[in-house]
Design goal:
There is one protein chain. By secondary structure, the chain is an alpha/beta fold. The protein is built from 15 helices and 28 strands. Strands 6, 7, 8, 9, 10, 12, 13 and 14 form an eight-stranded mixed β-sheet that branches. A four-stranded antiparallel β-sheet has the order 2-3-1-4. α8 runs parallel beside α11, α9 packs parallel to α10 and α11 crosses α12.
């Protein structure tokens, strides 16, 4: 399937150091030669914290450290001297061998350790001293990941009144253009109908399944949120166990809804207040709760918003597992993040939702499979052993980043991950999205805009927030005081792809199919809707703070990934619904003879059904029938929609001399559904 994908999967960043890693053999220990030491250090110290280092050691050292009562006292020749020089306080394994220990040992995961030492020791000196030892094969600075900057606009919840032709009764659904974009200029001045993820039609197939677990690796998710609580994953052993006890023996105490990777326990938090030395608020902002709501807020419950995979209000939504890696302005270090990914794998997650990334202190053109960095190790483990009860392997989905750079942030830019760029309600790139290298697929991330000097938030993404969280732009003086709010960013685009992935897996589960991680990735890429034909000219606007911006759309041509994610098309590929390519402006001949094979002799077209939404989305005109089994129409817009052909089967109508429908009662009326993929130039069978 790789031949279908035109985007380049290169892992690129700012430091040439990583380019020598993993594609070469481990060097022998030569104290007089400096280069092997440099090769072992796989990242820069730019964002490293003091007093902490991650190392990958040989088997003998790993076994001795794992069995030693005090690894700092382990008598490994040479290494014990370095331990003493650095004033090492603690050596602990990164990964938990109590679960799937044999598999992890076979993969070499038992060889990763965190070394904690005096904060007075220079981290670069510590890295050099550790790398000089032959027992140490990799040295990684314990980097922190910076929480994405957000601008939140809280909104009051709308009174529960069902209006229009909406499939669910969530009162704020009409403001969720990313699910169903009707081109409302009050939402966004250049909004274009159909520029959404096509959720409504996808929900006719499935709206989620509770066996599918999405791990939200982010700020803690407010698991008591009224629109999220029913769709939170729970660890039954801990939920029904004793407080303060590791009831299931997985290494974490009270991990009912997930884990806090910073504190190393199950105390998920989302309302931590903190101020810097200048009195500015740097506490929690609700980022994780907002992301979770996009994926799986409870649908059809009469309150708040709808989500992509939140079910139909009957307890059938996908489940959210909270893997907390941000707390206040503090983030987990790379070793703790790796442990969080390992936890999601071991506890059954199928999708890893990661609306974060790093600007890049690692660098390698192509990372060969191997022990490169501790997070990469964890991601490889998730890809192979994630999926829980519903998939063979898991899929990791990352934000491309909001720096308007021509490369995605890592680790999402690596080929084992999916990296998501952001579009606005007009279907065009947002001014902030990263693009080009390492970027795979686009989804709605939203834009604020100023209209007559007033900030309009509706072009952003509406989702759940913790009402008690202080607004960071009030310096913590004012809380959101609402359960819902708008945010923008590739952080918001990413959960749309995660939600679509969850829908695809849900549909497969409901129909007895078990996808592999590669199959799910292929479905997401193969179902994307073309956006490049409109990427010409320029686009102007104003950012949240009123700053004016202008982007050249040609810059993004063929650099936003394979296209915009489409839920209907993705689910239909699992459903084996037939996909019909259409070229805008040319007649489409949809023939039962072509799609029924030898069975066509015994069927005759009875009727057809094209709903109004598909007609508007694709601009369908000139609908007519030809002969006995062919429907003809023209699409005047690019997009994706459904057409149903109803036919009568079970009698050879060629022997009849009448078209009187009343005489067709001898046969059964059957429906066959087709997905129409209309593009400006569609000569590749609907595949990208």
């Amino acid at each position: 399937m790789e031949a279908k994908y035109t985007n380049i999967r290169l892992f690129v960043a700012a430091v040439a150091l990583f380019g020598v890693m993993s594609c070469v053999n481990d060097p022998e220990f030569e104290p007089s030669v400096e280069r092997p030491v440099v090769q072992k250090i796989i990242n820069s110290s730019e964002s490293a914290i003091a007093g902490r280092m991650i190392v990958y050691v040989d088997d003998a050292t790993a076994d001795e450290w794992l069995s030693a009562a005090e690894p700092t006292r382990a008598g490994i020749e040479g290494l014990s001297i370095v331990v003493s020089e650095l004033d090492v306080k603690r050596i602990k394994p990164v990964f938990n061998l109590a679960i799937n220990g044999d598999i992890k040992r076979e993969r070499g995961m038992h060889r990763w350790f965190t070394v904690e030492f005096s904060e007075d020791v220079d981290v670069e000196l510590a890295a050099e001293r550790l790398a000089a030892m032959p027992n140490v094969k990799r040295v990684e600075f314990a980097e922190r990941v910076v929480r994405p900057e957000v601008h939140v606009i809280p909104v009051d919840e709308v009174v529960a009144t069902r209006t229009g032709d909406y499939p669910f009764d969530d009162p704020m659904l009409p403001d969720q253009w990313a699910l169903d974009n009707r081109g409302d200029k009050e939402i966004y001045s250049t909004a274009l109908a159909g520029e959404d993820i096509n959720a409504f039609k996808a929900w006719e197939y499935t709206a989620g399944h509770p066996s599918v677990i999405v791990a939200v690796v982010d700020e803690g998710v407010k698991y008591t949120h009224p629109d999220l609580a029913a769709n939170m994953w729970t660890n039954s052993a801990e939920l029904n166990g004793a407080e303060g006890v590791d009831d299931d023996g997985n290494g974490y105490v009270d991990d009912i809804y997930g884990i806090n990777t910073i504190d190393g326990n199950g105390n998920i938090s989302w309302n931590n207040r903190r101020y810097n030395a200048y009195g500015h608020y740097i506490g929690d902002v609700g980022h994780g709760t907002h992301v979770a709501g996009i994926v799986a807020a409870v649908n059809n419950n009469g309150i708040g918003i709808s989500s992509i995979a939140g079910g139909t209000g009957k307890g059938d939504g996908v489940r959210i597992m909270s893997v907390q890696m941000f707390k206040e302005s503090i983030s987990s270090t790379m070793d703790n993040i790796a442990s969080g990914i390992e936890y999601a794998t071991d506890m059954g997650a199928a999708i890893l939702q990661c609306s974060w990334g790093m600007s890049g202190t690692y660098m390698i053109p192509v990372i060969e499979k191997g022990a490169c960095s501790v997070v990469y190790e964890a991601l490889c483990y998730f890809k192979e052993y994630g999926g829980g009860d519903v998939m063979d392997g898991g899929v990791s989905i990352f934000a491309a980043g909001n720096e308007a750079q021509h490369v995605a942030g890592m680790p999402g830019s690596h080929h084992i991950c999916i990296s998501v760029t952001a579009t606005s309600a007009d279907g065009l790139p947002t001014y902030y999205t990263n693009y080009n290298l390492g970027c795979n697929i686009a989804a709605p991330g939203g834009d604020y805009e100023w209209v007559n000097g007033v900030l309009n938030a509706k072009g952003a993404i509406l989702s759940t927030v913790p009402s008690e969280t202080p607004d960071p732009y009030s310096d913590g003086r004012v809380c959101y005081d609402s359960d819902y709010g708008y945010m923008t960013g590739t952080s918001m685009a990413t959960p749309y792809v995660s939600g679509i992935a969850a829908l695809v897996v849900s549909y497969a589960v409901e129909h007895g199919k078990r996808l592999t991680s590669d199959e799910l990735t292929d479905i997401l890429y193969s179902s994307a809707c073309e956006i490049d034909s409109r990427l010409h000219g320029s686009k102007r606007g104003q950012a949240y703070g009123g700053q004016e911006w202008e982007i050249n759309l040609d810059t993004y041509y063929q650099k936003m990934g394979v296209g915009r994610a489409d839920a209907l098309h993705a689910v239909s590929l699992v459903a084996d619904t037939r996909v019909i390519p259409a070229t805008v402006g040319k007649s489409v001949y949809l023939s039962l003879d072509e799609h029924m094979g030898s069975e066509a002799a015994n069927v005759k077209l009875w009727d057809y059904e094209i709903d109004e939404q598909t007609i508007q989305r694709l601009g369908i005109t000139n609908i007519s029938t030809f002969g006995t089994n062919t429907l003809i129409f023209v699409c005047t817009k690019s997009g994706i929609g459904n057409v149903k052909l109803k036919y009568v089967a079970g009698i050879d109508y060629k022997s009849l001399d009448t078209d009187d429908r009343e005489r067709r009662v001898a046969g059964s009326i059957v429906e066959k559904e087709f997905v129409i993929v209309a593009r400006d130039n569609n000569d590749n069978g609907a595949w990208l």
